[in-house]
Known about the structure:
The chain is of the alpha+beta class. It has helices spanning 12-16, 52-60, 90-97, 127-143, and strands at residues 41-43, 49-51, 69-72, 85-88, 117-120, 123-126. The longest helix is centred in the C-terminal third of the chain and has 17 residues, at 127-143. The N and C termini lie far apart (64 Å).
Amino acid sequence: MSATGTKHGWPERLFAYSDRTGGPDACWPWIGAKVSKGYGSTLGPNGKIRTAHRLVYEYEVGPIPEGLTLDHLCRNKSCVNPAHLEPVTNAENARRASCLALGQCRKGHKVDSEADIMLMGGKPHCRQCRNEYMREYRAKRKAA
Length: 144
């Protein structure tokens, strides 16, 4: 059935389970089922479980370009507003998604610029956290 069909209650489910009361510029939180990471989850037109933000984006905007993923510009994982979603590479999505992009790391260290972000194991960490980790690592190696 086509994307405009109603098999499995789709696309009506996209509208029934998203709170659009804040208007076109606000987050549209998914109020239906969610996966463990906080993303909305629902049946797609083919009857398979899909993330709600991807379905809404594909329905409202069009296909997600091959090789790209959707980044929540609002940083709200349950938001399905297509105006808050941008197709980006996985690397860019991971960089943006880290709390480092918000001006501080998980431990509360201030992050002022890209120079304060270091990769460790392929994941972004603030410079101060990386330095602390390396000091602890060297101390353990020296003691061993």
